[in-house]
Structures are given as C-alpha cells and as structure tokens.
Amino acid sequence: MKESDSIVIIPTYNEKENIEKITRAVFALEHSFHILVVDDGSPDGTATIVKRLMSDEFSGRLFLIERSGKLGLGTAYITGFKWALSHGYDYIFEMDADFSHAPTDLPRLYSACHDEGYDLAIGSRYVSGVNVVNWPMGRVLMSYFASKYVRFITGFPIHDTTAGFKCYKRRVLATIDLDAIRFKGYGFQIEMKYTAYKIGFRIKEVPVVFVNRREGVSKMSGGIFSEAFFGVMRLRWDGWFRKYPPMPKE
C-alpha cells in the first residue's frame, strides 16, 4: 500500500558515489518521500546499489526502473512521470543524484504546491540573484544568460528556465501530452515549464542554492546547451500557433 503522496524521480548514469547517500538523505527528512531511480544502464553498478537498498532497508519506499543505455534525461523523466502517475502519486519531483539539489529543499517545494496551491514549484537559482556554488564562471554565465535568452524570446516570466529541481502537482503531468515533448536535455526542462505556463498552471520559483557536484562526473555537454538555445525559437513558434490542452478543473 502506498504510504506517501510524494515521489522523487532521480535519473542516474554512473552515480555509484552518490546514489546511496542521496537516498538516505531524502529518507531522513521528516516528510515521507518515496524515490524512483531511473537508471540508464550504468556500467559502474549504480542499479546494483539501488537493488541492495531496496531489499535490505527501503522496500516499498525505493523503486528502480532500469533502461538499456543512455536514452536522454528527458526520456528518463517522462518514463518516471508515467510510472508515478500510474502509481497514484499526487506530488512528483525532479532531482539530481549528485547533491547539486539539496534534499532539505524538497519540503519547501512540497509546501509551495501542497500548502500554497501552486501547480509547479521550481527550485530557482536565479530568482533572488545568482545562487550557484563551485561552478566554473563560464558555466554560470552560460546558464544564467540562457534563462535570460529564453525570457527574451518567449516572454516566459521565469528566472530559472533550465532548472531541473521541481515539484509538479499530479494534474500538471496528467494534462501535458508527455509523448509530444520533443527535447532531451536542457531543452526538456524549458519545454516542460513553458508548456505548463501556456496551459495556465500556477508556477512559483522557490529560491535555492545550487552546489556543483563533489563526487562523480558531470553529464553536461555543449550539445545540451545548443539544444536549448536553438529549441527556444521553436517553442516561441509553438506559443503562437500550437493548441495547448485546456486547464483541468480542480
């Protein structure tokens, strides 16, 4: 029987240094969160660690989907979203495995949706300045101005459009046509937020501090930023001509 209204989706590829630590950190929180790990065939044994934790300590709270090969961040989350919807969760989170997103911020995102009534809560690095620790300056500037670029092109009133730390109410993901989401990397994060905005869902940016990973290897690449940069023009075009689903009733 499901004992939580909340599921945290964590996509992984070679995160053996972090996955047990992040799992224990989430489960140590006062609110009862469940975790779904979506692993893309990590050759370092990430999935093996998750299976051990599932059988030894966290049965019924920790879940795993194994995929064959690196299929992209966006498709990992969409796989996780569909699983969470089919299992009846009301609040569905995105979070990285590497502690760049602080588990202690999960309750703040939950509160924005559960208590304040927002449909989507974004853990925002840029809503109250630039709150990034240990990132190279070039990457900070690229990320910050990417969000500025998205706002300029689309008119989308969100400061951190590429953020990957989020809480969705169930009705947001049940309304969006997940199979129609095109982008895989940073573009996926922008497209999901923009689609929710165009449908009319209420969005709140919750200020967080982003800390660059201390263990493991970053999966970022120039191609991810390129997808976001060139995909924004297509989103603007969609905003003019695409027919979005109607807002569901409460």
Provide a compact summary of the structure:
With 250 residues, this protein is an alpha/beta fold. It has eight helices and nine strands. The chain starts with 5 loop residues before the first strand and ends in a 9-residue tail after the last helix.
Could you describe the 3D structure shown?
The structure is a single chain. This protein is of the alpha/beta class. Helices cover 40% and strands 16% of the residues. The protein is built from eight helices and nine strands. Strands 3-2-1-4-7-5-8 form a seven-stranded mixed sheet, sandwiched between helices. α2 (46-56) links the parallel β2 (33-39) and β3. The relative contact order is 0.16.
User: Which range does the strand content fall in?
Assistant: 15-25%
The helix tally amounts to 8
Report the strand count. Answer: 9
Poorly predicted ranges (pLDDT <50, ≥5 residues)?
Answer: none
The separation of the N and C termini measures: 25 Å
* Average pLDDT rating: 88
Provide the spatial order of strands within the biggest beta sheet.
3-2-1-4-7-5-8
The biggest beta sheet, please? 7 strands, mixed
Helix content: 40-55%
Class by SSE composition = alpha/beta
Shape: globular
Following the backbone from N to C, one meets helices and strands in this order, namely EHEHEHEHEEHEHHEEH
Radius of gyration: 17 Å
